[in-house]
Specification:
Elements (H helix, E strand, L loop, with lengths): L1 H39 L6 H24 L14 H10 L1 H16 L9 H14 L9 H18 L3 H55 L4 H29 L2 H17 L4 E7 L12 H22 L3 E8 L3 E8 L13 H9 L4 E5 L6 E8 L3
Parallel strand pairs: 1-2
Antiparallel strand pairs: 2-3, 3-5, 4-5
Helix pairs in contact: 1-2, 1-6, 2-4, 2-6, 4-6, 7-8, 7-11, 9-10, 10-11
Length: 386
């Protein structure tokens, strides 16, 4: 009986909130009528986007309430109302979610009265269930109906407020446009970095190498010792140019990824890091023995780990870091954690923006948690098929 009373009380709170929202919706119909009349008269068309935004907030509050009761989040799929008045009006009218919210609000005028049915259930339930449970030791039959009313309210709200496939497709297209633009920007930045590295490093060394060889040829007959020293310098420059080229190639796609797989590449990266790095692997194997993620996913994960460890070594002040690789059913999960000073900022030039763009291009997600004082935790999810 005690559990039944607690559940009924919780459902009562849910229904009281629903009743308050329904009452607010009844009042809001006046705003809708004024907006409709003003829009029909053209002079009040500017009110339409603001009214739609208000409806979105009311529907959003109902989504949160129903999601909190059922434990399942109800997604939103709104197109942003930006631009000129004409563009905002057009978006408000053509957005499929506007019709979804309006349809829910009309239906809510009807099923928003469900909390009224709760009122007689409490006194009846206290009497009937008190005798039925307290004396006869049977299961309550009246008070659980209050919870069922709350379930019904949440279920109808979930069905009516769930975005239509057309709205979800529009939001998805917008996301793909943004990630594509980010991928193009990241690709352009990568090309500029490679060009800069080749121009400032490898090309400068090769020019100096060519000059040393030319001088050595001229000095060979009259001063063989000087020519030999110049050739030694030229050999050193050639080796340095090869080292620069290897760095450039590794930045494009590290060969060790192809040879040893992601786990082996990350272990090698950890061994060469300035920090004491611990690598934990869950569901992945070294080399080619087990299943591997696609090459693009492995490259993105390697880039995230390399960039995170570099940032930690430069800015965090930490002495150690932890890297975790885990195979999930839907993809690859990466976590990099350091116990440094925290306070990582995307706009601070720490490479987080480039990291996010690279991951977003693969439809992944990046979560950065870095409070002042630490720790800094970077979590990445990269979807893929194993």
């Amino acid at each position: 009986m005690r559990h039944t009373l607690r559940q009924a009380a919780r459902a009562t709170v849910q229904l009281v909130i629903s009743a308050a929202m329904a009452f607010g919706s009844y009042i809001f119909i006046t705003v809708l009528l004024i907006t409709a009349i003003a829009t029909a008269a053209v002079v009040g068309a500017f009110m339409l986007p603001e009214t739609v935004l208000l409806i979105r907030r009311i529907a959003g509050a109902k989504r949160q309430q129903a999601g909190a009761w059922t434990g399942r989040k109800i997604p939103e799929a709104y197109q942003p109302l930006t631009g000129t008045v004409r563009e905002r009006v057009r978006t408000a009218v053509l957005d499929p979610s506007t019709l979804t919210d309006f349809r829910w609000m009309v239906a809510y005028y009807a099923y928003g009265t469900l909390p009224v049915l709760m009122l007689p259930l409490w006194p009846l339930g206290l009497v009937v269930d008190g005798v039925w449970c307290g004396l006869l030791r049977r299961r309550a039959v009246v008070l659980p109906l209050i919870s069922r009313l709350a379930d019904l309210d949440a279920h109808w709200s979930t069905v009516l407020l769930k975005p239509s496939p057309k709205a979800q497709l529009a939001v998805r297209v917008e996301e793909l446009v943004q990630t594509r633009a980010g991928a193009i920007a990241a690709h352009g930045a990568e090309l500029r970095r490679i060009e800069r590295d080749l121009h400032d490093g490898t090309q400068a060394r090769l020019v100096s190498l060519s000059m040393r060889i030319g001088l050595a040829k001229r000095a060979y007959d009259r001063d063989p010792e000087a020519a030999r020293r110049m050739l030694d310098d030229a050999q050193t420059l050639a080796e340095e140019a090869l080292t620069d080229l290897r760095h450039v190639v590794r930045a494009i796609h590290p060969p060790i990824l192809t040879d040893r797989g992601l786990v082996g590449a990350v272990r090698a990266l950890a061994a060469s890091s300035a920090l004491a790095v611990t690598v934990t692997v869950d569901g992945l194997t070294d080399g080619h023995d087990g299943p591997r993620a696609p090459a693009a996913v492995e490259a993105a994960a390697y880039f995230v780990i390399a960039e995170s460890l570099t940032n930690a070594a430069k800015y965090s002040g930490a002495e150690r870091a932890d890297v975790r690789l885990a195979r999930a059913r839907t993809g690859l999960r990466v976590q990099v954690r350091d116990e440094g000073r925290g306070g990582a900022d995307e706009a601070g030039g720490s490479g987080l923006l480039g990291m996010q763009r690279r991951v977003a291009a693969l439809d992944g997600s990046v979560t950065v948690t870095s409070p002042v004082g630490g720790p800094t935790v970077i979590e990445v999810e990269l979807p893929c098929v194993w």
